[in-house]
Amino acid sequence: MYSESPATETSQEERDPSAERLAYSVDEASHLTGLSRDLLYDQMRRGKLSYVKIGRRRLITRQHLEQFLGIAS
After folding, report:
1. 49 burial via Cβ count (<10 Å: 0-12, 13-18, 19+)
2. How far apart are CA 28 and CA 5, in angstroms?
3. Residue 12: helix, strand or coil by DSSP?
4. In CA terms, which of 35, 46, 63, 73 is 20 to 30 Å from 19?
């Protein structure tokens, strides 16, 4: 009748593929870091958070995000 399938264990990277992306939208970077969008935009405007502008979009690369957060890669 009713059978349970065994739970599959997945790592954080498998559940969240955005963790290994090369660049993130401001919304995605905000979600990943826990920082507000307004703070990220403010830091970009002040020149403290680097980004790449493609058309009208601002993309924050993984390296720029790590530099901003002070994470050694």
Report:
1. buried
2. 32
3. helix
4. 46
Q: Which residue has the tokens 């058309």?
A: 55
Q: Which domains does the chain have, with CATH numbers?
A: 20-69 (1.10.1660.10)
Angle between helices 62-69 and 26-33 (to 10 degrees): 40
Question: 58 near 44, Cβ under 8 Å?
Answer: yes
**pLDDT value for 62:** 94
Question: Where are the strands (E) in the chain, listed by range?
Answer: 23-25, 52-54, 57-61
Q: Give the tokens for residue 14.
A: 């498998």
